[in-house]
Every structure is written in structure tokens, then in C-alpha cells.
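Dissemination and training. As part of the outreach component of the grant, students in the summer workshop were shown how a complex can be specified as a set of sequence lines and then modelled as a single object. The example used during the hands-on session is reproduced here so that future cohorts can follow it. Participants entered these lines:
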Amino acid sequence: MIFAAPSIAPVRFACSPVDPHPGIVLVCHRLSLYLVKDGKTVLDLKFARDHNDQVRQMLQNRRSDLDATQILTLDERRRQVLAEVETLKAQRNRVNQEITDLKKAKADASALIGQMKAVSDRIKELDQEAAKTDQALREFMLLVPNVPHESVPVGLSEADNVEVRRWGSPPVFDFTPRDHWDIGEALGILDFPRAAKITGSRFTLLKGAASRMERALINYMLDLHTTRHGYTEVLPPFMTNADSLMGTGQLPKFGEDLFKLEGWNYYLVPTAEVPVTNIHRDEILAGDDLPIQYTAYTPCFRAEAGSHGKDVRGIIRQHQFDKVEMVQFTRPEVSFDQLEQLTRHAEAVLQGLGLHYRVMVLSTGDMGFSSAKTYDLEVWLPGQETFREISSCSCFTDFQARRANIRFRRGQGAKPEFVHTLNGSGLAVGRTMVAILENYQQADGTVVVPEALRPYMGGLERITPLR
RNA sequence: GGAGAGGUGGCCGAGUCGGCUUAAGGCGCUCGCCUGCUAAGCGAGUGUAGGGUGUAAAGCUCUACCGAGGGUUCGAAUCCCUCCCUCUCCGCCA
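and obtained this result:
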């Protein structure tokens, strides 16, 4: 197996106080390029300056066409301007005190005041110059992807993902298993034409046992994560502002995947990851409180731009779907261990429902922009005779923490450090129902309800045709 | 939607004819002293980020930050404008 082996890791970004995108206010404060080794931040912008070659190499590895030398230029310019403007500001502060003293003594200060006019104008100029440079540097850094962990297989696409393990076995049928849309429509519990009438394509009307199962699955998953896996349940807003989307990495690069509310700077959440991770934006957490583990149910809204004609049948790919998400904030040194654990938490849901699945580690070519390592859980769908993604579990190292300025203190008086963030679906509810319909279908067209779900469905054991 | 009041350091809370506030004071916290123990008392310290200077840590030094952004001014927590958020009353609504 081939592994990416960056001797040094990555390039990240951060930002500062100026607005690079109209209507979008950035909340990050640090302006530094840094490198991470063994999950620990060891170097910063100074390193990028002194070892620019290595930085360039890293960008190349991730197939980024960003030019690392631009960092040098911009940083040099920025520090030049800062040095000059800060000297002037120091002078201004000093002279202002003198003016104050003169005024107190009822003496004439007009000479000093006249002199400071020019200084003040120059400061104004330089401040603008510094802001421009900061903005350019930040825009650059916001487009730098996270760097894959050493254990991530190098590859160009989905085809290079590597199976890590699988659980269970596919159910055996003495008839030809059907797709979930056939099963659902025959039972009268999935209604596609009416959903298209109400809204449009990629929406589904659930009825009877389907809508109840959706609700049951949400409760089952939340209960599992809160009572067995140690997560705290939260129910966040289903819309977020642009700052939050910037914090988790959906913006500025992936705005076309989002539904934005007309006349508002609000977006429908594409995943609970956004509101939940941003719970602690701009906060310094107590080291003793880590790891912090949240689980949340939210609907998810995705424009699915660029997926036209893909998965058009059934409820696999919808503009709106329900998901239960797990989010963790951890110390840097344990984040990849936590990823293993979080992945097991997602797997526990599938195991509880008796669904056959496999775990894939995504290759460098298939993983997301913000992720350092991602496991996908793929559930077996007999109707389509294939494995389909039902959960995606990622460690983001401090990529999101830098953007969202989420830090922690190891102890009293210790310097704040960035936390690591993780999240994973636990699980995508709609696809879980798809899996149940297809895996538990019977020759007579009915569907057996998995035992774990029955308590949540009033003891219902079998779904029979509605009405 | 209408009317009004506010947003200050981890917390509470002063601070409007702009300049002795380098953000008073208190609480909390840390360290020390004192004290059978505890409590109380006494003393010192206590933010974040960036630049410069140190091999590094420390230290020293400069700059910025009183909801956010912009403006006026030699100088803004303090004045003006825009926006965000919180609270009160009215209206409407689940």
C-alpha cells in the first residue's frame, strides 16, 4: 500500500481583521503559516520564509496551484509596512502626551499639533496599505487545503480509496431484491411525484411507516450516542451566517453547494458540522474539558451543484435530508485516536441495525478540502448490489480551529493552543432507511423492522402497505 | 413592525462639555507571607494578538484591541454614521 509520506506536513492559513469578501466578516485573528508534525504545531510563518522550498513542495503534493513564493512577497511587504506604521504610531502617542501636558499648563501646542497632522495622514495611508496586504495574504491562505495525514493513501480519485475492514455479510434472498424506491412506492410510504409537485426534484414525501421510521432512526441514533458513547445532545439553528461557514471551510470555496437565503446573510446548514463546530468559535476552552463531544440531529440542505443526473432515483441524493452528526473538540495529540473511536461510534449504529458495511479510508484524491484524514462507512444495498456511503468521519487537525479561532489552555497560565476538531455522520438518516428497506425486504413486498428500532416504532415488527 | 435602554478585561462594575484611565474599584484566580487546620488578613501578580530584539525559553520594547466596521480630530471607551447582538414595552405570530 502506498502512503503519503510528507516529512513535514502542511500549509494552513488563518486570517486577520479585514473583509476579503463583501458581506462576509472573518473572525480569525492569526496571520501565520505553520507546519504540523505529530499533530503538534512546531513552526510558523518564519519557517515558511526560511524553508520556502519545502512549503512549495507540500502545495504541489496536494495538487494546489498556489504559488508559495507569494507568501514571501506578501509577508515581507506586510512586515515592512508594520514596522513603519508602528514607529509612527509610537511617535504619535508620545507627542500626544506632550500636547496634553502643554494644554494642562495652558501653553500653546499648535506647533506640535500642526506637525502631527502630517504624521497622522501618513499613518492613515500605511494602515490602508497594511490592510490590503493582510487581505491578500489571508485570501491566499483561505484557499490552501488541509494536508493529509501520513497514513492516508496517495491517489487521484475514489478508485484509490482503500478498504480497511468490513462487518457482517450481505443478506441472502430467494428472490430478486428490489430497489428502495420500488419497495417504498409499493408500500405507499415514499411519494416522489407529490414531493416534486410540492417543491421539485430531489425531494421526497415520507408517509406512514417511513416518516415514523425516520423519526425513530433519529431517536435511536441520538440515544445511542448520548447513553453509550458519551456525547452531549445539542439542537442548533438550522441556518448559519457566513462566518460559521468560513470557520468550517465550506466558504469561501464551496458557496455554490449551499442554499443561501435571499436578502439575508444566512445559509441553510449543509451539515450539522457547521453550527455545532462553531459553538466554540472564538473561545478558549479549558484543557480539562476536552474532549468535548456533541451529537446533533439536523436536516441538511445541499444544492448538489454538479451532481445533475447522478442518483436521480430514490432518496439517496436529496436537496434535504436528515442526519445525526457527531462532533469532537480534542487535544492535538489524541485527535487521530479519537478519529478511530468516532468511526467506531458510527459503525455501532450500523451494527445495531444489523446492516452489512465496509470502512474505507479516502485517498488524497477523494478527501475533502478541510480534512486531514477521512473514513467513509459504506453500507451494502442489495437492490443496487453495491456499497453506498452512509457516513463520513474526518479529523480536521487544527484546520477548522484556526479558521474559527477555537483554542484551549492546558492549564492555569498556559498559552492558548488550537484544538483539533473531528466530526462524522452517525448516520445519514435517509440512507439508513434506504439500507433497511433494501436489506430487510421480504418476498411479499413487506419490510421487517430491525429489532433495535421496534421500541421506537411502537413495537411495529413489519411494514405492510399503507391503508 | 413601532417606541425605548444597553453592549467595557475570566466575572461584576466605574468612566459623556474627547487628553493625569498607561481602562478606576471589586470579585475570582495564581504565587508568597502569616496562621493548630479551615476561614480571615497582608503583599505581589493576573488578557489576547502582532512587530522588533534574544540560538531558544525567559526577558525587554513597540503597536492594536472598551460589540463590529467606517468617519471627525493632533488625540476617541468617550462625538458622528452604518451594521450586529441583548433587554423592556406595544403590535403580530407558532
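Residues 16-17, 19, 25, 29-32, 78-79, 82-83, 85-87, 89-90, 92-93, 95-97, 99-101, 103-104, 109-110, 112-117, 119-120, 284, 412-413, 416 of chain A lie near RNA strand B (CB under 10 Å from a C1'). Students were then asked to discuss how this feature might be tested experimentally.
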